[in-house]
Amino acid sequence: IETEMESCDTFVVFPPCTANSVVIFGKNSDRPRGEVQEVVYEPRAEHKTGEKLECTFIEIDQVDVTHSVILSKPSWMWGAEMGANEFGVVIGNEAVMTKVELDTEESLLGMDLVRLGLERGKNAREALDVITQLLEKNGQGGACEESQNPIMYHNSFIIADVSEAWVLETAGRLWAAERVVSRFRNISNCLSIGTKIDLMSEGLKEEAKKLNLWDESESFHFANVFTEEVEKLPKHRARFAAGTCLLEKFSKENFFDIYAMINTLSDEESNICRRLTAEFPSAGSQISILKKDGRNVHWFNGTPDPKRSLYKPFVFTQNARLTSKIRSPSINSSDDPAKAKPRFMKAIDRRHELYKLFEACYTKICEAEESGDIYGEKRSEVQRDLIEKVEKMDFGRIGSELFNEAVEAEIHFYKNLI
């Protein structure tokens, strides 16, 4: 079904625009209302030769070793909206509509490609190669939401590490990539790569000519060639432009920091941040601080509406583990409507404990904010305390419970609101 999501914004900011010469990545994952996003950790693993991997809809060949990853993912699918790996690679994707026909056959989802890039790539370029090779081999297709009348779309990505970022945009199995090494870049639900194409799928221009999308009368501009002129495109372009303006604004003094990314992801005027009650709420968010010395910190909320949620810090440690309170309940494959065929014939409750508590408090949170109550101030104080705690910690002594302790503090905070 060719319906467009009002969905997602991804950002990356490089020195010299950032404070302390770090790289800062951020994403809001906007998903259909009611869909639960969980935060999960998967440890490094070795696999047997010939082993197969079950992605959301299809099976592919497994690799010998998969890296440890932290993922923010819709609870019904295998893939992820965003995440990070032990080597400091971060990836987020966006839905885009293109002139290349959608493949309704089940294949890899863009979210599967995000996870595969993180599990298999030791740096941004490796992750880019993983994603593009799998895309060319398998294509992209299938339901992108848990529904009998699902949304389907092509994908764009920001793939980053501490040295560089790649904007990857796709149209079916075709793709183009733009390398970013300074200042900033963002993507929304519109193609944005123009004539600066640093890598592309083999025969891309010839395919565009075969599809009667380009005739060589002007320079090859990826977005102009492949953009589908859908009804909501002006809104997507406006949000993309607003995101660029926010990055410009907050990096003006070359002091873009975690608070600047929080403010960017919390911007409601631009529609970058959307409430729990929206048709496509901001279902989950990620901020990653990447440093040259590898002391990376990844912040996830695991609840909707980043303006009113808390980011919790995660650091890859030897014995890292994540609390089950931010993971959806496990469901037997035979009872899971996302795995049984025909798919999505019933709805099930996938809410995790933190989601339920946040949802129960949400109306009170919004009412308190509108009445001038000090809730917002208190929430900001809790967030600030978490950030300052991490900044003051001896990185080598950070324990495996850092994220879990932050979840417990958040639960305590919400229980005091009820």
Characteristic key phrases:
418 residues, Penicillin V Acylase, Chain A, 2 domains, 8-stranded antiparallel beta sheet, 9 helices, 27% helix, 21% strand
CATH class of the largest domain: Alpha Beta
* Overall morphology: globular
The second-level CATH architecture of the largest domain is: 4-Layer Sandwich
Number of strands: 18
Approximate strand percentage: 15-25%
Full CATH superfamily name of the largest domain: Penicillin V Acylase, Chain A
Protein name: Secernin-1-like protein
InterPro entries: Peptidase_C69
GO biological process, one term: proteolysis
Organism: Dinothrombium tinctorium
Secondary structure elements and pairings:
Blueprint: E1 9-13, E2 23-30, E3 37-42, E4 45-46, E5 52-54, E6 59-61, E7 65-66, E8 69-74, E9 82-85, E10 90-96, H1 110-120, H2 124-138, E11 154-160, E12 165-171, E13 174-180, E14 184-187, E15 199-200, H3 204-210, H4 222-226, H5 233-250, H6 258-265, E16 282-290, E17 297-300, E18 312-314, H7 353-370, H8 375-392, H9 402-415
Helix pairs in contact: 1-2, 7-9
Pfam families: Peptidase_C69 (PF03577)
InterPro entries: Peptidase_C69 (IPR005322)
GO biological process, one term: proteolysis
